[in-house]
Structures are given as structure tokens and as C-alpha cells.
Specification:
Shape: elongated
Helix content: over 70%
Pfam families: HEAT (PF02985)
Strand order of the largest sheet: 1-2-3
Number of helices: 16
GO cellular component, one term: cytoplasm
Order of helices and strands: HHHHHHHHHHHHHHEEHEH
Number of strands: 3
HEAT repeats: 115-154
InterPro entries: ARM-like, ARM-type_fold, HEAT, HEAT_type_2, PP2A_Regulatory_Subunit_A
Organism: Quiscalus mexicanus
Distance between the termini: 32 Å
């Protein structure tokens, strides 16, 4: 029964945490018995079971309970199969969604070598606009996961494609994550490539795209500032934080802080 398998998946994370805390007594129980079940249920015929399996996997990754070898040898191959060009549409949408969500939890090497090539392919998926929409909405997170070099070499060309997509929702999603993408690039790329691209979004024929671009204008401009003098930095939760210079804080410790937090577009999209 699918409901039984769904309930089982919901119990996997707490069991895994218990096994981790009792590792001397159960050194290999999770890897031998539970992890294969999670991987198998990612391809279950029932969508509720698959959803429960995906949620369980993300919790296990957040808790750092999955070994690197299992991620590379068991989890990533399944996701690559499910997101292949000839894969079922529903499976493909689910796979790209979980790839985007788990990218920030994996090592940069794993993401760049195992998941990034497939992500770039999915950005150009001409069959399903839902797949491109997920890629566009999570673009900033992927850039942050792989770093500047891979972003400028592989992702920026795909970002240009998505910003010119015929579906206005794609362009709107790009406008919303523009700051996160810009923050990952060099000042030269920011100035010479992203600025003209942003102007095209702020002049888009669709008012929803223009509105999203104007809302991202301030955060995008902030990426041009010198962090050491402006006090701008990106937190781990994807928000842009603005704080006063240290000397101002030290000069009057009783004065309330004037720090401002601006939500990044990638965080809003999530």
C-alpha cells in the first residue's frame, strides 16, 4: 500500500538520527538497510511515496547523515537517470527540483562534476517549460554552490538564454534571482555582461517581468559595492545583509543598530 510506504519514509530521518547517535552499536545499519530504501523510493510508482522519499533525503542531507560515497554512487546516478532527456515528464520535474534543493548541501566538487552538466542541459529543455522554470528560480543557488569560475564559464550563457525565454514566467524568475547570480561573478562580468542583461529585463514587454526587475534593482546595485567599506555580505540563508561600519558601532555602543536585511530573490523563490 502506498500509504504504508509513505509512512515508512517519514520515519526514516528520526531512525537515522537514532542510529547515528548509537553508532558504536549500529555502525553500518543505516548504510546497509535504510539508505537503499530511500534511493529505491525516489523511483516509486506512487507520487506521494516519491515526495516523501525526496523530503526524507533532503532531511538526511541537511543533517549530514549521508556518506559522500553514497551521494556520488547511489543518489546522484538515480537523479541523473530521472532527469535524462527521455525520462518521464513527472519524474524529470521532480528530479530537477531535488537537484536544485540539494546542491547547496553537497561539496562544490560533487555539484560541479556530477550535477552541473545536467543542470545546464535542463536549462535548455525545450519540451517542458516547468523544468526551465525550476532552473531559473534556483539559478542563484546553483551559482553559489559551484562558485565564480564555473558560474562564468558554464552558467552565465545559460542565464542569458533563460532571460530571453519566450515564456514570461521564466524571465520573471531570472529577474528575481539576479542579485544572487551577480554576487557570484567578477566585477568585470557584472559590469560588461550582467548590466546590459538587467536593462533588457527592466525594459521587458511584460509588466510582471519589469516589476520583478525593479524590485531587484537595489539588491543588484548593491553587488557593485565594496564589501569592506559598504558592509554588505550574503548570509548563509541567502539574504543580503547591510550593517554599519565597525568603527561607528564601536564609537557609540548604546546606539541602536541600523542594520538592514534585504531578502535575495533566490530566497523568495524558494
Amino acid at each position: 500500500e502506498p500509504t504504508v510506504r509513505t509512512e515508512l519514509m517519514e520515519q526514516i530521518p528520526p531512525i537515522a538520527i537514532f542510529l547515528q547517535e548509537s553508532r558504536p552499536k549500529f555502525p553500518t545499519a543505516f548504510f546497509e538497510y535504510l539508505m537503499p530504501i530511500v534511493v529505491r523510493y525516489l523511483t516509486d510508482v506512487n507520487n506521494q511515496v516519491r515526495k516523501a522519499g525526496q523530503e526524507a533525503l533532503l532531511i538526511l542531507l541537511e543533517q549530514d547523515l549521508v556518506a559522500q560515497s553514497d551521494i556520488e554512487n547511489k543518489v546522484c546516478p538515480i537523479l541523473l537517470d530521472l532527469s535524462a532527456p527521455d525520462s518521464d515528464d513527472e519524474y524529470k520535474v521532480e528530479a530537477v527540483n531535488i537537484i536544485c534543493k540539494m546542491a547547496s548541501m553537497l561539496s562544490r566538487t560533487t555539484v560541479e562534476h556530477m550535477l552541473l552538466p545536467r543542470f545546464c542541459e535542463l536549462c535548455s529543455d525545450g519540451k517542458l517549460f516547468q523544468v526551465r522554470k525550476i532552473c531559473a528560480a534556483n539559478f542563484g543557488d546553483i551559482c553559489n554552490a559551484v562558485g565564480q569560475e564555473a558560474t562564468e564559464r558554464l552558467l552565465i550563457p545559460k542565464f542569458f538564454e533563460l532571460c530571453s525565454d519566450s515564456v514570461w514566467g521564466m524571465r520573471k524568475a531570472c529577474a528575481e534571482c539576479f542579485m544572487a547570480v551577480s554576487y557570484t561573478t567578477s566585477p568585470e562580468v557584472r559590469r560588461s555582461k550582467l548590466s546590459p542583461l538587467f536593462i533588457s529585463l527592466i525594459s521587458d514587454t511584460c509588466r510582471w517581468v519589469r516589476q520583478a526587475a525593479f524590485q531587484s534593482l537595489g539588491p543588484f546595485i548593491s553587488t557593485f559595492a565594496n564589501p569592506s567599506s559598504a558592509g554588505l555580505y550574503i548570509r548563509e540563508d541567502g539574504t543580503l545583509s547591510i550593517r554599519p561600519p565597525a568603527q561607528d558601532v564601536n564609537s557609540n555602543p548604546c546606539q541602536p543598530s541600523n542594520s538592514i536585511t534585504v531578502m535575495s530573490s533566490s530566497a523568495n523563490a524558494a
